[in-house]
Amino acid sequence: MDQRQSLGSRLRAIRNERRMSQRELAQKAGLSTNAISLIERDENSPSVATLQNLASALNVKMSYFFDDEATHSILHVRAGKRPAISSEGVIIEGMGAELRSQEMEPFRITLEPNSHSGDRQVVHTGHEFVYCLQGSVEYIIDGVVYSLKPGDFLMFEAHLPHIWRNTTDQVAEFLLILQTPSASDEPVQRHFSSYPSLPYMGNPGAPANSQ
After folding, report:
1. What are phi and psi of 17, to 5 degrees?
2. Can you give the residue range of the structural domain that contains 99?
3. Does 97 map to a domain?
4. Cα–Cα dist 45/11, whole Å
5. Is residue 174 in some structural domain?
6. How far is Cα 68 from Cα 97, in angstroms, rounded to an integer?
7. What does each of the 211 residues of the chain score in pLDDT, given as a tens digit?
8. Distance, C-alpha 173 to centroid of its chain
9. Could you give the number of structural domains in the chain?
10. In CA terms, which of 88, 90, 110, 182 is 20 to 30 Å from 173?
11. 117-148 per-residue burial string, b: 16 or more CB within 10 A, e: under 16
């Protein structure tokens, strides 16, 4: 994770920016007020599903919790420089800051044995691409189980409820690319440069990320 700003401080900053109380955010994200408080104090690491629920409630892309605001034409991120967070056997590595009008958010996910994305199914706009790098990964999409081995890939419409898991006793790794359709955010950056979360704004019309 970025040493200059923790996940908890980012969450607190954007919540204050939105003028939301911890109780209001908890209600929108389907969490307890105590859970929000613990995350903001960096006393609890949220699961992937929790992060996506928070991103949906705050109307930002999940990369807000990983990357500094930046605008690039080319990204070259070395292996040891990727921001990462870990929770309950899941390691999420952000694989790049924002490109201009970026519509892809890539992540490298490492799953310890018998770990998963969370109990709640996830839905969002756009498409999702998954490429298995190591071990065995199971995706459950709209009630159907898809098993991926190294070299296998999966792509689907992300409005379908889905979760992923590693049910084996071996470590699994996969590349996850989220498509996040949006118009250029350059006007937002120019008008609201003092609001660091705005370049990560999601689609205001997107459905909630949990059911």
Report:
1. -60, -35
2. 79-179
3. yes
4. 12
5. yes
6. 7
7. 334 568 898 899 889 888 889 999 999 999 999 999 999 998 988 887 888 889 888 877 777 787 655 566 777 777 777 777 777 788 888 775 567 667 777 889 899 999 998 877 888 778 889 999 999 999 999 999 999 999 999 999 988 999 999 999 999 999 988 877 653 333 233 323 344 553 454 433 333 333 3
8. 16
9. 1
10. 182
11. bbebbbbbbbbbbbbbeebbbbbbbeeeeeeb
Ramachandran assignment for 146, one of left (phi > 0), alpha (psi -120 to 50 degrees), beta (any other): beta
User: Is residue 163 one of the residues assigned to a domain?
Assistant: yes
Residue type at 189? Q
Rounded to whole angstroms, what are the CA distances from 82 to 44, 61, 68, 92, 115? 21, 17, 12, 10, 22
User: Computed from CA positions of residues 107, 99, 153, 130, in that sequence, does the dihedral angle turn out positive or negative?
Assistant: positive
**Gyration radius of the chain over CA positions:** 16
AA identity, residue 188: V
Is the pTM of the predicted complex or chain greater than 0.90? no
Angle, alpha carbons 53-49-69 (nearest 5°): 65
Phi then psi for 34, rounded to 5 degrees? -65, -35
Dist CA 82 CA 189 (whole Å): 24
199, two tokens: 């370049």
Residue 145 falls within a domain, yes or no? yes
